[in-house]
Amino acid sequence: MKSLFYGRAVLYVLISLLTVLCVIIxxxxxxxxxxxxxxxxxxxQSVVGASGVSGTGVNSSxxxxxxxxxxxxxxxxxxxxxxxxxxxxxxDEITAEELARLLAAGMSLENKIYMMMMVTxxxxxxxxxxxxxxxxxxxxxxxxxxxxxxxxxxxxIDPESTKAMITVMQSxxxxxxGFPLLVGVDEEGGSVVRIADNPAFGVNKTPSxxxxxxxxxxxxxxNTIGKYLSQLGFNVNFGPVADVLTDPLNTAIGKRAFSxxxxxxxxxxxxxxxxxxxxxxxxxxxxFPGHGGTLGxxxxxxxxxxxxxxxxxxxxxxxxxxxxxxxxxFVMVGHISNSTAFQDDLPASLSKVAIDVLKNDLxxxxxxxxxxLNMGAISKYYEPEEAALxxxxxxxxxxxxxxxxxxxxxxxxxxxxxxxxxxxLDEEQINRSVEKIIVAKLKVQQGRG
Length: 449
Description:
With 449 residues, the protein is α/β, with parallel strands linked by helices. The chain has helices at residues 4-16, 18-25, 96-105, 109-115, 121-125, 135-143, 159-177, 215-232, 262-277, 309-314, 318-321, 339-342, 352-361, 376-379, 384-394, 406-421, 427-448, and strands spanning 47-48, 54-55, 117-119, 148-151, 182-185, 236-237, 284-288, 303-304, 330-333, 336-337, 367-370, 399-400. It folds into two domains: 4-105, no CATH class; 109-448, TIM Barrel.
């Protein structure tokens, strides 16, 4: 058994999907043991999964095929018969994708939508500032099982409190959901950092991307950042910036970009990501389809460029096209409109045409996440529920900061559920997104050892 978590996760499927799995295993009769809900090394420990069902550990093995593609290449294949069983009726070899498909099938629609959200600790708990995790976080994760949490400067006081906060949140997530949280932060280096500017952390600062001139320097920057993020308990970095600086007057990106040369950006972004990966930190290429040519800042309001798709593919999209070959777990879609390339006036984050270019033309199969939906380019023109639904319909797998409080999150869930029931949105699309998210969570769990 490579990991207790996989046994626990498979068990959750065996119980919550009895009617599905009985086709291949006949009659399921697990023996339930009492015990703590917290993590333990005993294979017979009672665990509580996402549906609150208790059970015992099941021997399982996960293959090393842990890409984040989910079941996107065969979205209609949800048969549990693809999972191989050994002569004892136990899971002998199961890929992360197969397990993710089973787990997603056992989740309620509401919980799947929550899993597509990454929110601040304040949104999750309805508090003004969160710097620690207590009973309120536990109850929040039970009621609002979000897929991830993003932290900002105000959440990060010092190494001890930060590590304790994330550790407790992860313990609560394991208890209430059966999955670890994706815990992310913007730590690009240079001027955009949430940790390195705080002297309490005592970490080595890395230069702005524009001051990095070689692959070795880029790797060292990613490795330095990845090391302290891993030590603090983070597993996702919203970096590196993969924008090509096509307009020297651009201030929204400016020194955050590696270069105005697409090939240099491609090389340095790859090496930065390798440095993150060396420490078990997932990387994010941003801001598709390129924020380096805008004069405005999407934090403040509507921004646009007027560049034909053919030009984008030869320039701005070159770094993003390499994401599929370099194990880049996330691509963040920016709120940049390009009516010439995508034949609509929508921000790319809400444009199915734009995201189809990323998924189909560039072949990216990882997690597509919006830039923060509370930014001015979205919040000034769309209600949160409208923006969230549009973002999902456009093809995003995760929504970053889609609401400011729990009431807002619930309203988004209600809106998306209604869209599914009304036939406006296919639940199978949500399933494919959730499968990719679960694979990422399994990767985090596997990295714990």
